[in-house]
Amino acid sequence: MRIGRAELTSRSGRIVLLVALLALVAAGLGIQRALGDDPGGAAADGASTAPTGSHRVVPAPLAATDGTGAGYTLTARTAISTPDGNPAARQIAEQLAAGLRRSTGLPLPVTDGHGARDGIDLALDRTLSEETGPEGYRLQADANGVRIAARTEEGLYRGTQTLRQLLPAEVESRTQASADWTVAPVGITDRPRYAYRGAMLDVARHFFTVDEVKAYVDRLSLYKFNHLHLHLTDDQGWRLAVPGRPGLTGIGAATEIGGTPGGFYTEADYREIVRYAQERYLTVVPEIDLPGHTNAVLTAYPELDCSGGPAAQPYFGNAVGFSLICPTDERTYAFTGDVIAQLASLTPGPYLHIGGDEVKTLAPAGYQEFVRRVAGQVRAAGKIPFGWNQTAPVAGGDGVGMLEFWSTDGASARDMSAAVGRGARVVMAPAGRAYLDMKYDAGTALGVRWAGTVSVSNAYSWNPDTELELPAGAVAGIEAPLWTETLPGLAEVDQMALPRLPALAEVGWSAQSARDWNGFRLRLAAQGPRWEAAGFGFARRPEIPWP
Q1: Which pLDDT score is estimated for 47?
Q2: Residue 11: alpha-carbon gap to chain centroid
Q3: Which residues pair with 265 in a beta bridge?
């Protein structure tokens, strides 16, 4: 609209001007509505409005209030303070400082005795138990500094991961970067929905080195996962040294899918993975898949094969259900006893996963007796037996204590409901929602699609409590399994895990009522620059409005 100069000198001109101004305001409001009144909105053309402050955090916090005024800027004066004499809190602070120093170039000294006004203050507050639970935290940022308070050291660590996301994306750079290192004023109260939030990495189909596993842990810890499930054995390879069983590593570990050389973890290697995960508050859940998926075992110890068929040979394909360790020979249980004893001695966490899936050559009675005996060995070693949903008929009581649901078989779902009635709990990992090896769509180069395709939206838009008809309180949490038949290295893993891994992290952490796909896709888009700064590969899926 154009307004003539003469009109402005008259009363009628002033009226015209007022009408014009109102029209401009209305147009502006219309633009604002099109963009969205908050950072969770989306422009009409599909472009994103950049989330700011707490609105860019993944997974979404329980409650967040953006403050007013100046935020806190990290400078050469900034220090990180911790509770006096608490070595775990000190370690969390040192880890945070090391990451921030690398990208900011600031000295960021760590000091004992929390309460510093100009800096980042980590505080343990036991009175927060009802508000935040064992993993929750409160974060307050203003012009004076950042304060993270939690009931436990684990909660402090989760709070530091949120702090990372409140800083510019360049904070994830592996070399010194230039940015305005300011945390906007905000108040956050947060806690997880589920106590178990896991991700599985299959190191049996393709072997991953200690450093590669650590790199995956780095991705998990940023999004507040707290369990790392390692699928250590399968038909294609065995990945852990066991005293007195040299054939497992000498023969069983030598191969992987496709015929390329495999590998294995020594005791020291495995302990290093456990240590690294523990420092990032992830519990390692080791899996030895039994009684099927055991071809690698049988190549090393053919006496454990009572099938009567040809001797097992190294297997490089991806078929399932053809192998079976002998369920009626006591030598089998001597073998499983040795393996379980080794795993129990190396694993501080409470769970030991015994697999139990896709056993196609054993009658139900024999299968259930096998699982019952091995679960008893796990309990005798001081651990809780964990199994795939096929183990449900012998779950609960003194059998399998935790079930992992992946199958869409209705009979399995009924068995699981009965198992819950006997005291078992369930981790939800439905293949059509949570399997990160499923293709995004039919055109995806990597992955498989036997469970369909899993878009980012499919990975995000489900409710673990209602995916199956289970009693209230039966679901302990969720897991994001990543099978590696088509994924030979970390670059391929990143393509399939990112951006779906953060989607599943939010399913496990954030309240169901607080989750919204339209808002999430914008927050997820804001993670892209962070991954680029960190050197993480990811799939630029078109359903996400990347910057």
Answers
A1: 41
A2: 66
A3: 240
